[in-house]
């Protein structure tokens, strides 16, 4: 997704297309993109996983199909990781936490009847393929929301070694494959380099690194 407005527009369109106009579908989409998480990890969030003092989420589990139905298991990386909850989504998260009250193991996100959410459930309930095609994002998958979050963080200046920790990847090369800078970001990188070189050419100019 190119920007925040596009993401919120997608979320609203998915809610509108769902049979029950369930706002939770949109909340899951926005949460996944802003935390660079998998949909199954979003489904696995429990109240006790959110620290409102630091606004961080400890990712401990994911919901996935298993023998006999959906199950919760450890993350794909087999270890817990911490993810920031950005200011834009804190009100949504805070309202959900308040509504759940003193239930530390309650799920933060569920379907309209309290069921668990997977990428397939989200796709079918919101008519995902139809909606993204109509909006001009025909190649966008639910997992691409994770790519979106990591790309946005990279463009904001988050170092790749920190992105690796947030994503829970085992190597930097895996994280780098998730990053998709747009044309504007690439052009901006050229401008930054030109400024840097120009500063070095100028007599008495600063020799610090421009970021």
Please give the count of helices: 10
Biggest β-sheet: strands ordered side by side in the sheet: 1-2-5
Coarse structural class? mainly alpha
Spell out the CATH superfamily of the domain at 4-140: Intergrase catalytic core
Instruction: Quickly give the CATH architecture of the domain at 4-140.
Output: Orthogonal Bundle
Tell me the span between the first and last alpha carbons: 24 Å
According to CATH, what is the class of the domain at 4-140? Mainly Alpha
Strand content of the residues, in percent? Answer: 5-15%
Helix content: 40-55%
How is the CATH topology of the domain at 4-140 named?
Answer: hpI Integrase, Chain A
* Mean pLDDT metric: 85
Low-confidence stretches: 206-211
Biggest sheet record: 3 strands, antiparallel
Radius of gyration: 19 Å
Q: Let me know the number of strands.
A: 5
- Write down the overall geometry: globular
Sequence of secondary-structure elements: HHHEEEEEHHHHHHH
